[in-house]
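Anyone up for a design puzzle?
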């Protein structure tokens, strides 16, 4: 497998999506919403608006050839072949983030869990793609074992080495032990490696991996 410059640009662009998990956890404080009783709900509303806007752009791209030409001129080089006639990965990330924000309404531990899970997925998914396409040799379906190991390694380093020093995180979620980091990192890597099918349809991992990992982190946190 080879790593193209388009794939690198695509993953760098996805890096901007880190603002989504940060907004879920830190957004209420940054916007001065806390201790308003619906502070987390307002964040979900904002992310819902972003998702609706993205879906509107997708609808125009898929239905209006004139708009599609403009879109492809700006972003076409970063689209995968299968995205030409279906939703892009970016829109699925917005959808996955929105679902995580809905779970975050259950309290600050849930918000911290969504922050952790969504961040691990965004960066872990990027690591899996970059390592898999540059170093991947052992194919597992459409992905590689090396990519999965790259995903796991980065997620473990982030959850065990970075999240404990982030402002307010451990005071809300609790201390992250190496077993917690291992379990969540393995979950992200395995879910990313083996796609989920519903009938003949393969679900986009941007949609369900963050949500499932958030649920696991909620159970473990607090």
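Challenge accepted. My sequence:
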């Amino acid at each position: 497998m080879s790593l193209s410059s388009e794939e690198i640009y695509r993953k760098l662009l996805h890096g901007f999506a880190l603002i989504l998990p940060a907004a879920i956890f830190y957004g209420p404080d940054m916007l001065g919403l806390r201790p308003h009783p619906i502070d987390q709900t307002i964040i979900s509303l904002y992310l819902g608006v972003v998702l609706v806007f993205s879906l509107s752009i997708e609808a125009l791209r898929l239905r209006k050839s004139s708009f599609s030409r403009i879109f492809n001129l700006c972003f076409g080089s970063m689209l995968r072949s299968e995205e030409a006639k279906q939703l892009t990965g970016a829109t699925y990330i917005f959808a996955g983030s929105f679902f995580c924000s809905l779970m975050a309404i259950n309290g600050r531990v849930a918000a911290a869990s969504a922050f952790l899970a969504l961040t691990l997925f965004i960066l872990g998914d990027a690591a899996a793609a970059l390592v898999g396409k540059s170093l991947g040799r052992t194919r597992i379906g459409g992905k590689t074992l090396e990519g999965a190991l790259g995903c796991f390694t980065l997620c473990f380093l982030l959850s065990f080495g970075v999240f404990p020093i982030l402002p307010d995180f451990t005071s809300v979620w609790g201390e992250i032990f190496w077993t917690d980091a291992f379990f969540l990192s393995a979950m992200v890597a395995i879910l990313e490696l083996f796609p989920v099918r519903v009938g003949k349809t393969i679900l986009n991992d941007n949609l369900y991996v963050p949500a499932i990992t958030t649920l696991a982190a909620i159970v473990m946190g607090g």
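A detail worth pointing out: Residues 5-220 form one domain.
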